[in-house]
Design brief:
Layout (H helix, E strand, L loop, with lengths): L14 H7 L7 E6 L2 E6 L4 E4 L5 E4 L8 H11 L2
Antiparallel strand pairs: 1-2, 3-4
Amino acid sequence: MRTTIDSAGRIVVPKSLRDAMGLDAGVELDVMFTDGHLEIDFAPATVRVDETGLPRLLADRDMPALSEDVVRATLEGTRR
């Protein structure tokens, strides 16, 4: 898919790609130059451990809820 860079150096990400990745305004991204290509990925969230009761990780920003399907697919994908 072809796009352009404006005079301020901004890259327009086409709507179909934004929709496919679930990108909304304000989402933080990591942009890397690797092997002659630009790679765009979600920026990792910074987390802290809350040890009130059972330990749990708390992100520094709002994160989407994990559905049972996402958790199951992740577990299945890591099993050998």
